């Protein structure tokens, strides 16, 4: 019987450590009963060897992603236990409910990011995504300029090309950290990680050089598939 759960989250590289703890009653429902099916980290090792991305950088990034998966499972597990224990009206429950958005999106955004990498040759100018970008931005080059400008903004977060499913329009968005500024009801098509851990090992402070490397390796077919 598990009667004490703790989880430790390290936010980013060299970030602050946050320790949250929850003590469940000894006679609580068994761990087996409440444990949700754990989510498993995906394997993106096929990306090793991409031009402009060192093996060290990618392996560190994969490890960081796996941490988000682990913590998402842990926080979900603790929240499920607290629900079973009738502990929902507690500050601990409220803080973990706030926290899960950060962990979950940290996990999922990395999956979108890794899954839209590994391509070569640039966008298919005759494809449906290029046509849609031209329709909404005037031409591909204007979209690319805007997306790179979003990715160059100071701060840590993500540059994301979204499709607003209510009207089909495409737009570039800045996601702060992992959880702030997601446009409701929109579908992410292309994701670029611009946390320092995504580029500093290879490029130091030269984020623009990393963005160029990212563009050389976009798997545009992933974006095409995500487009509705
Ligand atoms: Fe990342």
Which helices and strands, and how do they pair?
Elements: E1 4-10, E2 17-23, H1 31-34, H2 55-84, H3 91-115, H4 128-137, H5 140-151, E3 157-164, E4 170-176, E5 186-193, H6 200-203, H7 207-216, H8 220-226
Antiparallel strand pairs: 1-2, 3-4, 3-5
Helix pairs in contact: 2-3
The protein binds fe (ii) ion.
Describe the structure concisely for a colleague.
This protein is of the alpha+beta class and 228 residues long. It contains eight helices and five strands; from the N terminus they run E-E-H-H-H-H-H-E-E-E-H-H-H.
What do you see in this structure?
- There is one protein chain.
- The protein has 228 residues and is an alpha+beta fold.
- It has eight helices and five strands.
- The protein has helices at 31-34, 55-84, 91-115, 128-137, 140-151, 200-203, 207-216, 220-226, and strands at 4-10, 17-23, 157-164, 170-176, 186-193.
- The protein has a three-stranded antiparallel sheet with strand order 4-3-5.
- Strand 3 and strand 4 form a beta hairpin.
- The longest helix is centred in the N-terminal third of the chain and has 30 residues, at 55-84.
- The model is unreliable at 1-20 (pLDDT under 50).
- Bound molecules: fe (ii) ion.
């Amino acid at each position: 019987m598990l009667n004490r759960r703790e989880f430790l989250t390290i936010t980013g590289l060299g970030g602050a450590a946050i320790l949250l703890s929850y003590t469940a009653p000894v006679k609580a429902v068994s761990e087996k009963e409440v444990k949700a099916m754990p989510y498993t980290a995906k394997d993106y090792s096929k990306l090793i060897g991409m031009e402009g991305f060192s093996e060290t950088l990618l392996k560190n990034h994969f490890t960081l992603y796996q941490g988000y998966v682990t913590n998402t499972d842990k926080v979900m597990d603790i929240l499920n236990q607290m629900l079973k224990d009738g502990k929902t009206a507690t500050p601990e429950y409220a803080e973990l409910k706030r926290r899960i958005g950060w962990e979950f999106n940290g996990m999922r955004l990395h999956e979108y990011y890794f899954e839209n990498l590994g391509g070569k040759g640039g966008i298919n100018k005759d494809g449906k995504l290029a046509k849609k970008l031209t329709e909404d931005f005037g031409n591909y080059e204007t979209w690319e300029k805007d997306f790179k400008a979003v990715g160059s903004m100071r701060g840590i977060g993500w540059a994301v090309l979204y499709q607003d499913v209510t009207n089909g329009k495409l737009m570039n968005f800045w996601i702060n950290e992992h959880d702030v500024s997601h446009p409701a009801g929109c579908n992410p098509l292309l994701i670029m990680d611009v946390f320092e851990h995504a580029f500093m090992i290879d490029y130091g402070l030269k984020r623009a050089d990393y963005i160029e490397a990212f563009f050389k390796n976009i798997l545009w077919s992933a974006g095409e598939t995500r487009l509705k």
